[in-house]
Structure to design on (285 residues):
């Protein structure tokens, strides 16, 4: 017992300092007046929070977060499940197709953003393909437009992350006993009924995990957008993380950046806390 405690003690100390300690420091920084290159620890209470909630860019970022989360999470979960269900049929060359689908997850967000920035150029990439097949009049501006720029970005993001969600669902599908499927078939259930009443309910823990992971990614997304379009026209593709980065390292408004970071941590808590409580419930059972 003592040996185990000594082994994990360094990890506990590191987590306490470099995670929870820095979270506490960031929260404290959101209550002081450090908005220049010169440190200023004058306590101002909630003034930074009031200023943030009244900032028009912050309101746009919240709207963009909803757009991004809706598009990104739905694409990853729906396509990840469909691809996993197809691969679960033990098709020929499954290993090859599984590798192809999950490969984008191994690519960094910067590389993904640069590649898709070229693909979404109005005169090249995808639009060039549309022109070649006779759709010259269908030339969307993708992530360069304020109207649906954030929706376009979710295509690139889901392309990168869907493979990981597929792997989660495939592992869940392979963990379902074959007896349950056979029993459903004996009862006369077809493929649709089997998935609706047997498989999908059994995969709800996997879906919850995918929901939390994609939700966390939606809150903290930065590198993909930074390499694709930045804030975009009229903050069309701006995010909380990008706002925090520019406020902290561009405008030297450290307290404002800390306030945005603390707000992102609070948003993440609405996903992480229920997930941890559900995991605790599973362990106690």
């Amino acid at each position: 017992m003592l040996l185990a405690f000594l082994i994990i003690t360094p990890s506990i100390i590191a987590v306490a300092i470099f995670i929870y300690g820095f979270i506490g420091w960031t929260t404290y920084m959101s209550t002081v007046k450090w908005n220049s290159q010169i440190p200023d620890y004058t306590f101002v209470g909630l003034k930074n929070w009031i200023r943030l909630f009244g900032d028009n860019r912050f309101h746009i970022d919240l709207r963009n977060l909803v757009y991004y989360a809706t598009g990104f999470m739905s694409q990853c979960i729906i396509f990840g499940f469909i691809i996993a269900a197809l691969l679960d049929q033990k098709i020929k060359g499954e290993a090859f197709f599984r590798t192809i689908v999950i490969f984008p997850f191994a690519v960094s967000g910067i590389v993904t953003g640069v590649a898709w920035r070229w693909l979404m150029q109005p005169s090249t990439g995808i639009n060039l393909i549309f022109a070649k097949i006779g759709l010259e009049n269908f030339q969307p501006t993708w992530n360069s437009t304020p109207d649906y720029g954030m929706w376009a970005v979710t295509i690139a993001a889901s392309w990168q992350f869907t493979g990981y969600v597929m792997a989660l669902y495939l592992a869940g599908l392979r963990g379902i006993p074959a007896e349950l499927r056979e029993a459903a078939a004996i009862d006369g259930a077809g493929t649709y009924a089997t998935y609706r009443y047997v498989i999908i309910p059994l995969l709800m823990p996997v879906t919850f995990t995918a929901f939390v992971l994609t939700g966390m990614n939606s809150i903290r997304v930065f590198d993909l957008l930074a390499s694709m379009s930045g804030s975009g026209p009229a903050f069309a593709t701006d995010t909380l993380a990008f706002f925090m980065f520019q406020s902290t390292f561009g405008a030297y408004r450290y307290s404002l950046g800390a306030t945005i970071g603390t707000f992102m941590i609070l948003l993440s808590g609405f996903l992480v806390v229920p997930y941890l409580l559900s995991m605790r419930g599973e362990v106690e059972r």
Q: What stands out?
A: The chain has a mean pLDDT of 90. The longest helix spans residues 56-87. DSSP finds 13 helices and no strands in the chain.
